[in-house]
Amino acid sequence: MTLEQLQYFVVIVETGTFLGAAEELHLSQSSLSKSIQRMERELNVVLFDRSGRSARLTEAGHQFYNDAKNVLSAYTQLISNLNQIKDSHENTLKLGLLPIQASFRIASRLKQFRSAYPKLDFQIYELEDAALLDKLLDGTLDLAILRSDFPHPKLSYFSFALDHMVCLLPKQHPLAAFSAISLTQLKPEAFILMPAYTAVTKRAMSVCQKAGYVPERVRYCRTESIISSVAEGEGISLLMESNIEAFSLNNVVIMPLLEAVRGSVAFACLKEKPLSLPAKRLIELFKK
């Protein structure tokens, strides 16, 4: 039995007659009929009731038709997957991500993926939140690694890690003596936060509002400036743990929050843009 015979069989069933199938397949009716008879002899089963003019299926024929369709569908998918893998040697995968490569084993996983696809033109762009979202939405990027706390309706998300919000306090701050603090205790403080457009700061302002207040004194700057400013006693900050993993925190205390504010780190892609096979493999690697 061959795939060609399975295809012949399916066409006969779907056209309803051997003659119609022969015309569609550009074969003689005699050749088509002999091919099916050979398959029936090989399988030792009768697939068609040949007592009438139409190609009526036997009970075994009905079952064989369903199975044949599944086999042909699986074969088509197999060929498609192989072609995508072959094409990936010449294709490009553009990944954008936040400056968090030192966290969640991102850097090592990207290295592992690059090694698995040495001929893939794998381009990585480290961007801030706003630029990352813009380039993903306009199709410049195929995938992005970002925080999914505020999902965009045009994007699909595939979460692979959780992050936790913490409070950064000057070492001499009265609250630094606690083992954990509540957001309500921070109400009178001067806040030093990441730029207002970032997901981290949006989340920080959101949880403060849920705690019953809006910070009155807020200054925005980059992470390294936040840490040095907190160390100098200029204010406090709310950041995610991954934001500070790569920094030295002299004279700064990392304080857990009683509210246990969590955030998701995820791959994002356009809903309307099908993922390539390399993009799917990259997501699968991170979800292991």
Automatic annotation (TrEMBL):
Entries under SUPFAM superfamilies matching the protein: Periplasmic binding protein-like II (SSF53850), Winged helix' DNA-binding domain (SSF46785)
HTH lysR-type domain ranges (all copies): 1-58
Gene3D superfamilies, alphabetized: 3.40.190.290, Winged helix-like DNA-binding domain superfamily/Winged helix DNA-binding domain
Keywords of this entry: DNA-binding, Transcription, Transcription regulation
A single MF term (Gene Ontology): DNA binding
Pfam families referenced in this protein's UniProt entry, alphabetically: HTH_1 (PF00126), LysR_substrate (PF03466)
PROSITE patterns for this protein: HTH_LYSR
GO cellular component annotations of the record: protein-DNA complex
Domain of life (superkingdom): Bacteria
PANTHER family (alphabetical): HTH-TYPE TRANSCRIPTIONAL REGULATOR CYNR (PTHR30346:SF28), TRANSCRIPTIONAL DUAL REGULATOR HCAR-RELATED (PTHR30346)
Family: Belongs to the LysR transcriptional regulatory family.
Name recorded for this polypeptide: DNA-binding transcriptional LysR family regulator
